[in-house]
Write a structure and sequence with these properties.
By secondary structure, the chain is mainly α. It has two domains: 8-133, Hypothetical protein af1432; 135-204, no CATH class. Helix content is 60%, strand content 0%. The chain contains ten helices and no strands. The chain is globular.
């Protein structure tokens, strides 16, 4: 998979609400962010476009807005997805229909676990686009790993590596990482190879998942 990204602002669907757009861009551009930044947002949009070109069906407006809000709050603390969903609810309530607001917030909350039901076309598309970094070419994957580490600079190496190993083991244990037909065909094998390689590297360093 090519490590391409889309300019996020090209995908802003509410031209009459540029103030909200600017606040979201500012959030993703916070220099304290490592991986969950404006580049990540652009990669999510690029993967959504790739899925759409391949014929994957999903609702454009709620999925696009959910992509914008899914990491709107990111500070390394718990409940970031919940706080992002609340921001979406508060910001969009007078902008789009109540049904659409509820769908955006639901999708943002789903990104905490990335476990959409098979029948959840919107959730499957967003989850796959968000996790597509796992299938990136090795050089981009290594950049991603390093960027994630900077977001947890407050943790010592042993604590971070143990937590990271637990995350990777959880991913490895999933019966599938991706939920759309296209992503499973084109991204699953590369993603599992990257996860397995990184997890193996941590084990060589003597780190076990769940160790604190």
């Amino acid at each position: 998979m090519e490590p391409s990204a889309t300019e996020p602002s090209q995908n802003w669907p509410l031209p009459a609400h540029e103030d909200l757009h600017e606040r979201l861009v500012a959030a993703y551009s916070d220099p304290r962010r490592g991986y969950h930044d404006i580049r990540h947002l652009g990669e999510v949009f690029a993967r959504l476009e790739e899925l759409a070109r391949a014929g994957t069906a999903f609702e454009q407006l709620p999925v696009t807005l959910a992509a914008w809000f899914h990491d709107a709050v990111y500070d390394g603390e718990r409940d970031a997805e919940e706080r992002s969903a609340i921001w979406a609810e508060e910001s969009l309530g007078s902008v789009i229909s109540a049904e659409a607001v509820a769908e955006v917030a639901r999708l943002v909350r789903m990104t905490e676990t990335h476990t959409p039901d098979d029948s959840d076309a919107n959730g499957c598309a967003l989850s796959d686009a968000d996790l597509a970094i796992l299938a990136a070419p090795p050089e981009r994957y290594e950049e991603y790993v390093a960027a994630v580490r900077t977001e947890f600079a407050h943790l010592d190496d042993s604590t971070f590596k143990a937590g990271r190993a637990a995350v990777l083991q959880g991913l490895s244990d999933k019966p599938r990482l991706f939920h759309t037909d296209y992503a499973r065909e084109h991204w699953e094998a590369a993603a599992r190879a990257n996860v397995t390689r990184e997890l193996g590297s941590l084990r060589v360093q003597g780190v076990s998942p769940g160790t604190r």
